[in-house]
Write a structure and sequence with these properties.
- The structure is a single chain.
- Helix 15 packs across helix 16 (565-576).
- The protein folds into two domains: 2-298, 4-Layer Sandwich (Nitrilase/N-carbamoyl-D-aminoacid amidohydrolase), CATH 3.60.110.10; 322-639, HUPs (Rossmann fold), CATH 3.40.50.
- It is of the alpha/beta class and 643 residues long.
- The protein contains 19 helices and 20 strands.
- Helix 8 links the parallel strand 17 (383-387) and strand 18 (411-414).
Length: 643
C-alpha cells in the first residue's frame, strides 16, 4: 500500500441457492485465495450468503436466521485477516427486510450498507421482498455489538489515510443519482458494488461502459462483483461479471459465465492528485452535497508494500493499440495544423519560414506546415524551408532535408553559416578548436537569427521545431532553437514525434516521400553542433542526456499525476527491466530532475504553440512554476533509495 497502491479483488463464488452453509464455505475459500494474493479489499456479489435468486424464500425465517448465522461465521473467519471484506445478505430490521452489504474486518461486522434503489421492473421483483434502506446511519444491534445501518457510511484505515471506501448495491449504480455520487462528494475515492446483474444480449458492454463512466465521473476506483454460477436459471442467467475500473480506465475484468476472482492494483495517490488538479471536483470534506453527515468507520490494515501486478506502458504518450495510435496521430496532426492555420491567418503572413535539418523535429514541423497551407489553400512554394549547414552537418541529414523540401514543392534555401559563425567567434574571442557550449550555442543562435530575418523579408512566420521532451530537459539553446513565432511541436514529446512521422510515412501515397521519412526515422537524434567523425554523426543526444523513452516516462508521471521520484523509479524498474538496469534508470532519473528544475527559465518564455495532450509545459497553461525553485527535495528522495 506504499506510494498509494492497494490491491483489490472482485470475487464470485459458485453458490447454491438457499444453502447458506455451503455458500459460506465457498466465500471462505475465496477470502483465503484473495488475501493470500495480497488483496486488501475483497468484494463479493449481492446477497451471496443466501443467493440472489431465492425469491419467496426470503420470506422464510429459516433462511433469514441461517443467513445471520452465516454472517457471524464469516465475520469470525476474518479475525486476523488483513483485508476489508464486503458480502451480501438479507437483513431484517424492525418490520422490513433489507438487501445489504456487510463490511467485515478483523473479526467484526463494521457496518451494514442497504440498497437504496429497489429494482421492480422487467425481470426484477425486488420490491416484493425488500424495502429501501435509510440514508443517515442508525445504530442497530448485531451479535451484541452496536453498528451503523445506512448508506452514508465510509470506511478508512490508518494504514492508508488517503483512502475512503463507500458501498452501493447493483441497481444503485444504474440510476441518475446513485449513492456513489454522494459518497465521492463526501471524500470516497473507492466505490464497491455488490451486484446480481443478469445477462441479456448487449448488457455486458453497457455494464462495462457504466463502470468506466462512473469511475471517470467520480475520479475513483470502482470494484464491481456480480452473481454468477449457481444462481437459479429458472428465468434468467447470471454471468458473474467482475469489473475493476479507475478514473475511466478498465484495469481488469473477468470473462462471463463462470466464477473466480479478478484482481487489480488501484492507485489512490493518483486519484487524489487528479481530484486536487480538478478544482471543479466537488469535494466537501465530511459533508455530502445535501449537507447530511456521513459516518466514518475505521478498519484495520497493516501498512506494507503492495506487490504490483499492474503494468505500465513504456511510452505513456503513445497508445499501444495500432488503430487507436493511428487515430490519435491523425487527431494530433490536425490540432497542430489547425493551430498554425489560425496563427498564419491572424498574422496575415504570406509565408512560413522554418529551418530544416533532416532530423525528426523539423521534419514533423514541415509536415504540419504543409497541412496548414493545404487548409488555407496556399501554395507550397510560400513555405521557405531553410537548410543551414555548419560544422556538424552530415551529408545524410543535409540530403534528407533537401529531399523533403523538394518533394513537397517548398522553396528550398541553403545558407551556409560557417562564415558568419566563424566571424562571430572571432569577434568574441572564441577559438574554433574549443568545442564547448559557446561553440555549440553560437551556431544555434545564428540559425535562429537567419530565420527571423528571412521572415521579416518575406512577411513570414518562423515555425518552431523543438519538442516537449527537449523543453522538459532544457535541451535547447536559449534564444536559439528555443525561440520561434509559433512552436507547433511544443507539447509533443519525442516518443510521440517519432510515431507521428512514422504514421505520415505509412499513410502518404508518394513512395519517394515515404522513403525519406523512413530514413529520417532511422537517423540518430542529434543537434549536429559538433564535427562529424568519418562523415557520420558524432554527437548523439541520448548519449548525453539519456534515453528519451525514459525521460518521457518520467515526465508523464511527474506532471500528469504528480508522482514522487521514488514512485516513478519503482514503476520504471519493471517497465524497463529488459532494457535498462536499476542504476542506469536512477542515473537518468536524477538527470531528469536536475535539468527539469534548472532549465525552467527557458520554458518561462516559450513562444505560443498548441496543446495536444494532457501534459504540456507552457507557462500560460499547464505548468506554472518559479524558474528558481530548488530540486533538492526531489533529489534527496532519490539519494535515500535503497538499491
Amino acid at each position: 500500500m506504499r506510494q498509494g497502491f492497494v490491491k483489490v479483488a472482485a470475487a464470485t463464488p459458485k453458490i447454491v441457492v438457499a444453502d447458506v452453509k455451503q455458500n459460506v464455505e465457498k466465500i471462505k475459500a475465496q477470502i483465503d485465495e484473495a488475501t493470500e494474493n495480497g488483496a486488501k479489499i475483497v468484494v463479493f456479489p449481492e446477497l451471496c450468503i443466501t443467493g440472489y435468486s431465492c425469491q419467496d424464500l426470503f420470506m422464510q425465517n429459516t433462511l433469514l436466521s441461517g443467513a445471520l448465522d452465516g454472517l457471524y461465521e464469516l465475520a469470525d473467519y476474518t479475525d486476523g485477516l488483513d483485508a476489508l471484506i464486503f458480502v451480501g445478505i438479507p437483513f431484517q430490521y424492525k418490520n422490513c427486510l433489507y438487501n445489504v452489504a456487510a463490511a467485515l474486518n478483523d473479526g467484526q461486522v463494521l457496518a451494514l450498507i442497504p440498497k437504496t434503489q429497489i429494482a421492480n421492473y422487467a425481470e426484477f421483483y425486488e420490491a416484493r421482498y425488500f424495502a429501501k434502506g435509510p440514508k443517515e446511519p442508525i445504530p442497530v444491534t448485531l451479535f451484541d455489538e452496536e453498528i451503523p445501518f445506512g448508506t452514508e457510511v465510509l470506511f478508512e484505515t490508518d494504514a492508508m489515510p488517503d483512502m475512503l471506501i463507500g458501498a452501493e448495491i447493483c441497481e444503485d449504480a444504474w440510476v441518475p443519482n446513485p449513492p456513489s455520487t454522494n459518497h465521492a462528494l463526501a471524500g470516497a475515492n473507492v466505490i464497491v458494488n455488490l451486484s446480481a446483474s443478469d445477462e441479456i444480449v448487449g448488457k455486458a458492454s453497457y455494464r462495462e461502459m457504466l463502470v468506466k463512466a462512473t469511475s471517470a465521473r467520480l475520479v475513483a476506483g470502482y470494484i464491481y462483483a456480480s452473481a454468477g454460477e449457481g444462481e437459479s436459471t429458472q428465468d434468467v442467467v447470471y454471468g458473474g461479471h467482475q469489473l475493476i475500473g479507475e478514473n475511466g480506465l478498465m484495469l481488469a475484468q473477468s470473462e462471463r459465465f463462470g466464477t473466480g476472482i479478478t484482481y487489480a492494483d488501484l492507485d489512490i495517490e493518483k486519484l487524489q492528485m487528479e481530484r486536487r488538479r480538478m478544482n471543479t471536483f466537488g469535494y466537501t470534506g465530511d459533508q455530502a452535497a445535501d449537507g447530511e453527515s456521513y459516518m466514518i468507520v475505521p478498519f484495520q490494515l497493516i501498512l506494507e508494500e503492495t506487490p504490483l501486478g499492474r503494468t505500465f506502458a513504456r511510452t505513456p504518450f503513445v497508445p499501444g493499440d495500432l488503430q487507436l495510435r493511428e487515430s490519435r496521430c491523425e487527431e494530433i496532426l490536425n490540432i497542430q495544423s489547425y493551430g498554425l492555420k489560425k496563427r498564419l491567418e491572424h498574422a496575415q503572413a504570406k509565408s512560413a519560414v522554418l529551418g530544416i535539418s533532416g532530423g525528426l523535429d523539423s521534419t514533423l514541423a514541415l509536415l504540419v506546415t504543409v497541412r496548414a497551407f493545404d487548409l488555407l489553400g496556399k501554395p507550397h512554394e510560400d513555405i521557405l524551408a531553410v537548410t543551414m549547414p555548419c560544422f556538424g552537418t552530415t551529408d545524410r541529414t543535409y540530403d534528407n532535408a533537401c529531399k523533403l523540401a523538394k518533394t513537397f514543392g517548398c522553396t528550398l534555401e541553403e545558407i551556409d553559416i560557417k562564415k558568419s559563425v566563424t566571424q562571430h567567434f572571432e569577434d568574441i574571442g572564441q577559438e574554433l578548436s574549443e568545442h564547448d557550449v559557446t561553440y555549440e550555442n553560437g551556431q544555434a543562435r545564428e540559425r535562429t537569427q537567419v530565420l527571423m530575418d528571412i521572415a521579416n523579408q518575406k512577411n513570414g512566420l518562423v515555425i518552431g521545431t523543438g519538442d516537449m521532451s527537449e523543453l522538459a530537459l532544457g535541451w535547447a539553446t536559449y534564444n536559439g532553437d528555443h525561440m520561434s513565432m509559433y512552436g507547433v511541436n511544443a507539447s509533443v514529446p519525442k516518443t510521440l514525434v517519432r510515431h507521428l512521422v512514422k504514421y505520415y510515412a505509412d499513410t502518404c501515397e508518394e513512395k519517394e516521400l515515404s522513403a525519406v521519412l523512413e530514413d529520417v526515422l532511422d537517423t540518430p537524434v542529434s543537434p549536429e553542433l559538433l564535427p562529424p567523425e568519418g562523415g557520420v554523426i558524432s554527437q548523439k543526444t541520448e548519449d548525453l542526456v539519456g534515453p528519451y523513452e525514459l525521460h518521457d516516462f518520467f515526465l508523464y508521471y511527474m506532471l500528469r499525476y504528480g508522482f514522487s521520484p521514488a514512485k516513478i523509479y519503482r514503476l520504471a524498474i519493471p517497465t524497463f527491466e529488459e532494457k535498462y538496469g536499476q542504476e542506469e534508470i536512477l542515473k537518468w532519473l536524477k538527470t531528469f530532475y536536475k535539468r527539469f528544475f534548472a532549465q525552467h527559465f527557458k520554458r518561462s518564455c516559450l513562444p505560443d504553440g498548441p496543446k495536444v495532450g494532457s501534459v504540456a509545459v507552457s507557462p500560460r497553461g499547464d505548468l506554472r512554476m518559479p524558474s528558481d525553485a530548488s530540486a533538492n527535495l526531489w533529489l534527496l528522495q532519490l539519494e535515500e533509495l535503497d538499491i
